[in-house]
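User: Okay, second chain of the day. Same drill as before: sequence in, structure tokens out.
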Amino acid sequence: MASITIRNLDDDIKQRLRVRAAEHGRSMEEEARDILRRVMSDTASPRDLAAAIRARVAPGARAGLKLPAREPMREPSQPGR
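Assistant: Same drill. Structure tokens below.
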């Protein structure tokens, strides 16, 4: 198995990890492994930005809002007229 070292971890994050690990009755290292395992195994989240935006906006699109009718486009102006 591989191992990693995490440098420059904010003191607040470390403290929160320590508390969370204690709440779950395990070491900080095991808690970090569990968090990484769960996050990396989450395949339900969108893999690209467009899909993430669509997923975020889609619930609002079903709000039953009526869009106003569009008017026909004007003819483009002609040079020299």
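The chain has a mean pLDDT of 85.

User: Thanks, on to the next one.
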